[in-house]
Amino acid sequence: MVRIAFFGPEGTFTEQAARNLAGGDQLFPVETIPAAFDAVRSGAAEGACVPVENSVEGPVTATLDSAVDGDPLVGVAEALLPIRFSVLTRADAPDPPRTVASHPHALAQVRGWLGEHLPGAEQRVASSTAGAAVGVLEGQYDAAVVAPVAAEHYPLRVLATDVADLADARTRFLLLRRPGPLPEPTGSDRTSIVVAAANRTGSLAGLLAELAMRGINLTRLDARPVKGDYGTYRFFFDFEGHVAEPRIADALAALRRRSTEVRFLGSHPRADGVAATLEAGAGNDDFAAADAWVEAVRKGELA
Amino acid sequence: MVRIAFFGPEGTFTEQAARNLAGGDQLFPVETIPAAFDAVRSGAAEGACVPVENSVEGPVTATLDSAVDGDPLVGVAEALLPIRFSVLTRADAPDPPRTVASHPHALAQVRGWLGEHLPGAEQRVASSTAGAAVGVLEGQYDAAVVAPVAAEHYPLRVLATDVADLADARTRFLLLRRPGPLPEPTGSDRTSIVVAAANRTGSLAGLLAELAMRGINLTRLDARPVKGDYGTYRFFFDFEGHVAEPRIADALAALRRRSTEVRFLGSHPRADGVAATLEAGAGNDDFAAADAWVEAVRKGELA
C-alpha cells in the first residue's frame, strides 16, 4: 500500500488535492508542511501532497523552504484547485451567525462576500479552515469558512457554497517523492529548480538569459531570503519543458556551471495542460542536429 | 505639524521604525497596511511607515500590493531594525506562564527560545504582537512575545529581552510620501520600481539585462501574482543607485519602453549605508562623455 502524507488537518483544500493526485493510495494528514516533507524523507510515506502557490497570496513559503532544508525530493505531479469556499454552521447556531472563523488567508479571500452576506459577524482567526470547522462544532464560533471537502468530515449545516471574491482564485499543489524515475514528457510539462545566485551585478540576469537563449518560457520566479545571511537570496524557477528534452538539459547544465548551488525539484505534466512554447531552433531535433555537426567538425569531417 | 500614519497598533516594531524615521513628526497608528497608504493618498497624513521586507519571512505582501493598488506613493527613507523580541507577563500571572501569545510570524521567529525556556507554555495566535500584550493585560494569556517598544505602552513585567532564534533577523521599513522632490543622492541609495512583464519567453531576462548591462546591482526581486489573472505576475525590483544618476535614469527609460506598466516607487538612502558598486563605464562622467560623443557624431563633428 502506497502511503501519501498530506498537509492537514483533514477537510482542507490540500486533502482535496491529495485525493485528486493519489488515486487509490492511502492518505494520512500531518500537522505541518515540513512534516509532510519529512514523512517522505524518513520513509514513513512514499509521497507527500503540499500547496505550492496561490494565485492571490503568492508562493507558500513553508513549501519553498522545506524543499531546500533536508534531502532533495522531486515533484512528480500537480493539481490546480479553484479556491471556492463553503460556509458551515451548527444547526443550533444563531441565525445570522455572530462570529465567523477561518484561516487568515481564507478570510482575506472572502472579505467582500462576508461584508455583503454576514456584515454583522465578527471575524475570528483559526489555525486552519478545518480548525475553524472544529471550533464551530465545539461552540467556539458560529460559522466557519472552509474547503468544500470539510462538509464530508464535520456534521455541520451548509450555509453557502461557491464563496469567493475573485472568481478564478486557484491554488497549485504538488505530489512529491524521493528522487527516482521521472514522469514521461508530455509536451505540456513544468520543470522546477532552486538556484543560489552569486551576490554580484548581473548574476540573476545571467541565469535567466540561459533560459531565454534556449527559448525556455519561465512560468514563475520566487526569491527567498537565505536565513541568517541578510541580503542574499535563493531563486525558485518554474519553466516550461521536461529535463528529458535537450533544451532543458542543456539549460540545467549551464545553470549548474554558473551557480554555487542548484537543486532539481522535478519535471512533471502541468495540471492546466498548456503546451510548451517552442522557439525556432530549440526543438529536440535541432539540438541533435547541432550536436552531430559539432561532433563532425571535431573529427575533421565538416566545417 | 507633519502627521505620519504607521501600521499599528502602538507598541510594534513598525512604531519603533516610525519613531526612528519621523523625527519630531506626529505619529498615529492605523489598523492595516492599506489604511496607512490610504491615509497619505487621502491627505489625512503627510507620510506613512510600513514594513517592506523581513530577512526570515521575506516580502510583506500587503505592502507590495498596496503600492500597486491606488495612486502612486514613493519611499523617501528606510529603517532597518534588528528583530529581537521581549517577553512580557502580568505580575500576577503563573510562573512559569501556561500560555504565551503573539503574531504567528513572531512565534515562528522565537520557536527555539520558547522550546528551551518556556517548554510547558501553550502557544496562542494573536492578531499582532501588541495585541498579544493587550491579551496579557486582560488576562486572556499569561505571556506575550512583543517588540521592545511595547514595554513602554503596557504596564507589564519584562520576563526576557533580546529574544531571537536567529541573531541577525531584520525587518526593513519604508517612509512613504506622495510624489514630490526626491531625497538627494548619497552614493548609498536604493531605487525601487514595479514592472509588469509581458507573458512571453525571455521578457524578465530582458528587463534584468537592462540593469545588468548598465552595471546596476539588483538587491531584491519579488514576483506577485496579478489578482484575477492566473499565471501573470508583476515584479518588484530594488537596485543600487538613485534615479538622479544617469545610469539609473537610462535603465528606467529602457524598462519603460520594454514593459506595459512601470511604476517608480522611490530613490532614497540605504539604511545599511552600503555603497553602490559601480562598474567601469557606468559612472555619471562616462554617461555624460558618451552622450556628448553621440551628439557630436550627429552634428558631423566626430566619428
From TrEMBL, chains A, B:
The record marks T171 as: Essential for prephenate dehydratase activity. It catalyses: prephenate + H(+) = 3-phenylpyruvate + CO2 + H2O. It is an enzyme of class 4 (lyase). GO terms for molecular function: prephenate dehydratase activity. Pfam families: ACT, PDT. CDD domains: ACT_CM-PDT (cd04905), PBP2_Aa-PDT_like (cd13632). Keywords: Amino-acid biosynthesis, Aromatic amino acid biosynthesis, Lyase, Phenylalanine biosynthesis. Pathway: Amino-acid biosynthesis; L-phenylalanine biosynthesis; phenylpyruvate from prephenate: step 1/1. PANTHER family: PREPHENATE DEHYDRATASE P PROTEIN, PREPHENATE DEHYDRATASE-RELATED. This is Prephenate dehydratase. It comes from Prauserella isguenensis.
